[in-house]
Structures are given as C-alpha cells and as structure tokens.
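Lecture 7, part B: from sequences to assemblies.

Below are the input chains for today's worked example.
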Amino acid sequence: MSLEISATEYLSRVRAGNISVEEFVAKTLDRVHTVEDKVHAYITIDEQNALNKAKSIDKKIKAKEKVGSLLGMPVSIKDNICTFGLKTTCASKMLENFVSPYDATVISRLRQEDAVIIGKVNLDEFAMGSTTEFSHFGPSRNPWNTEYVPGGSSGGSGVSVSALECMISLGSDTGGSVRSPASFCSVVGLKPTYGLVSRYGLVSYANSIEQIGPVARRVEDIALVMNIIAGHDPRDDTTVQNNKVDYTAGLDSGIKGKKIGLVQQMIGEGVDKEVSSATNNAVSKLQELGAECITISLDAVEHSVAAYYTIASAEASSNLARYDNLRYGFDFGSEGFEFKAYVSKIRSNFGPEVTRRMLLGAFVLSAGYYGKYYLKAQKVRAMMKSQVDEAFTKVDFLLAPTMPILPFKIGEKIDDPLTLYLLDINTITANLTGIPAISIPFAISSSGLPIGMQILANSFEEKSLLQAGYSLQQATNLPRVPL
Amino acid sequence: MVDRKEIAHLGDLVKVDLKEPEKYIQQVDQILNYFERLDRVEYNSDKTLRKEVSFESLRDDKYEQFQSDGKPLIDYLKKDQNNFVRAPKMI
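Predicted structure of the full complex, as structure tokens:
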C-alpha cells in the first residue's frame, strides 16, 4: 500500500475494504518518524489521538454507522490555525505553550467529515516569511533537496504533503504562503477567493488579505477539500454563500477554447532562466490543449511589493499588539514590573522578521507618514484591482510562474529581507485583489528542484480554476520526490 | 533616513525592548527607501478598495456565552483567583 495514492483513491480503497484507516494512519505516522529528522515539517505530532481516531472510524465503518466523507484521511494543519486541545504556536516563542481552547471553523468542518489530524506543521513565525526559516522551532527543509528552503510561510504544509507525511494540509496564504511552498515542494496549493473560506480561528496577521487554503498532491484532492471548507460561516462576516458548489464535478472539462493571459510583469527581469523556459513550455502545453494564450500587461504589479508590504506590515503591527502575555502565553511573573516595562520585555521574544514588520507597520501608520505610505499603498491596491478586473474582461485566466526563481539554500537570503520580499512579486496580486490562484507542479530544473506554474482566475471562479489546473496537471509527468 | 532615535521610538510604539536596535536601522531604512516608489506612481484616482455591508446582513448583536468542551473561556486563561487575570501595576 503506497502513501502516494490520491485522496480519491484512498477513499475508494477504504470504502472497498482494501485498507483500514488505522493501517493507513499508522503507515503515515511511520513515514513521519522516518523522515522528520531530515525535513522538520511538524511542530506537534498528535500520534495517539490520530491512532485512536483512526480506530474509532474503522469501528464505525465496520458497524455500518454514518462516517464523514473523508473516512479518516490523514491531514496536517498549519500551526496558526486553532485546533482544540492541541498547541497552536504560530512557530513563535510567544505562543510556544498555547493550547487552543476551540477549533477554527475549517477544523470543525474537517473533523465533522472524519479527517484524522496527524499534527500541526511549521511556518515562519506568525506566517511572516517566504522560506519557513523564521520559525522559532527551526527551518523546515525541502524534500527535493534538504539543503534548500521549502518556501513559506506554510512550509510545513508543503513539506508534509510532498514528503508523504500526510495526504492533505491546510495552510494560510497572505502573500503567497500556500503557493510558494507548493511551488518549491512540487505539490498543488490553492489560495481561494477572499471570503470563500472562513478565517474564524486563523490567528490574525493581515486580515484584509489573508486566506486559508489547501495543499495536496493532486488538483482533485484540493477540490475535495474545498467542498468541505468553502462557504458561509456566521462567525466570519467576510464569508459568502457559495451555493454548495461541487468543485470535484467536471474537473476534466478541459481548457479548450479558454483564453489565457500571460502576465508580462511577472515574467521579465529577475526571473530565472529555467523558470522562464518552463513558463514558455506551459504556454505551449496549454495551447496544445486548445487554449488561446495572449500577453497581458498589469502595470500595477511593478508597485505591488511596496504596496503589499506597507499594508501587510500595518495590519501586522496592529494585530500583534494584543500579545501581552497576561491572559495566555508563557510563565513569566509580573511582580516588580511596571505594565509597559513588563509588556515590552515579554514582546522582545518575537523573532526578527515579526519585529521588523511591526516596526515598519508602526512607521507607515504614524503621524506624517500615513498619507505618504499607507494611503498610497491602498490606492495602488485599488488600481491593481481595476487592472485585474479589466484583464478578466479579455481573458478567462492569468498565468505566471508561481515563484520567479528556483528554491535556494537555507540561510542564503535570511539576512536580506528586501530580497526575500521581492520574491513575492508573482503571488501578491491575488492577495491584494482577493482573487483565487493555484500553483501547479510543472517542471523539475536541471539541478533537481521543482518549478510551479500559477493560474489566477476571477473572484469565486474556483471551479473553472481547478478545471484549468487539472488540465495542466494532466499534461505533466513529473518524477517522484527523491526522499 | 531612519536612525537610532527613530528605531528606538518605533520600538517604544510597538512595545518591544529591542535587543539589537542597530540590526534594524539599516534593514528598515532599506525597506522604507524601497517603499518610496509609491511616490512615483501616477495615481489617476483617489479611489481605495472598500466593501459596503448592509446593517441587515450583520449577525444579531446578542450575548452568546463562549464555551468549549463545556467550559467557559476563562477556564482556559492564565488567571490568579476569582476569575481575575493578574496584570502588572500601571503607574
């Protein structure tokens, strides 16, 4: 029994009685124990509960009782999504012992469908980063070459899915944090439309742009998860009704007759030669499949990194102001401290990237600078939305490489935050404008590192986006992860 | 240009004792210099994105006790006694 099977294949094998849930979960946990030393995807492994849950699902199946649609599928959860009774550390020293007192809505929905949570996975502290190096618990490593970064901030999600340590994972995407690790680890990652998936129970970083999204090895598995997590949640007023769209239906509808716009500003200067060549190949493949490809210009992309980091830092600085260690946090007595001195001392435990963004956020929001930075960033965001809306009157999808460069060595860029920020140039458009985007594994470089292609669609067009992604996936034949 | 004084002021605003302020001076300055490009954009509109939500679409503003696994939220928090959270003295 291979752990590489797709989620749909897993379901049919469990239904047919070919494998038991306990058997599959135990095998997944064995795999976790075998590879974790090499890749460090997990912060918390919930082994005993996972096995108990698997056994109870097997019992229900045997007794022909009602079982949730995921039939014990092993999943991992990014450690900034609240899971009742399990730690939610946000990969931060500030929350290293914090146990969630409730489930996020996405977790309740997965549990309702009898998913088995294997554990909580690594991220850049509070989801701020694009390499998973800014985790208080140490970096995750790319299963394709463990000396290289796996992308981020949902690096643990990308790694755990790629290294067969779970079947699907939930991450969060504020500026590409699901798609970047998907691209670097050769798995599929979807950033849904803002408002399609509840953020209740997601630890806030930048509320106006972040979104929970699934990571899986196949597009059809992503569709399966979306059927469960998408839709209105009374606990998140930004969510909308999705009329119970079935994202799995018609996945193989093809892309014939669709028009695709290759975004000019996302394939120019700074793009690695092999990434560029893979993009050209993707265009050819899509044309062979019957799509029409044209070039589209989105001028605002050139200003998007400055606008994005202004807005994200401003929201981060505001959101992280709540961490005072008084109601929850680690043990550190307040005796002898004046209030502000206590809070400032405690908050010096934030890592360097989080601190940097709080400083930037405080600066761009401070008197005299609000109009110069924050307001202008918001105008760029509106300009970008208008250009994207205009583009979707001409094309059905936009296309670009997910990441402009190949995965790089751990530590190589850690002291150069601006260079790291600039790597987000192709992913942040979807966050600033709220549209959905998916990263599909497309090629492997001459050095054996993954290259992902990103397809973007208009708001709430996930169904057709998944169809396009599926078409591209079916046109590729990639090697297995060498781990 | 961000200097030591400015970084110390920002640290004060975000309530963080900066252990190595020098480390942040050059990096924050470099990033803010990059943000300067927002001045070079040709803005053809003052429009910013906003979503209007009707009052009727909001959920009812009514008290609902938060309970998790049958326990009130306060049971999950660090507390001193009689359900109070202890905070340092405010001067």
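Note for the exam: Chain A has 15 helices and eleven strands. Keep this in mind when comparing with the next example.
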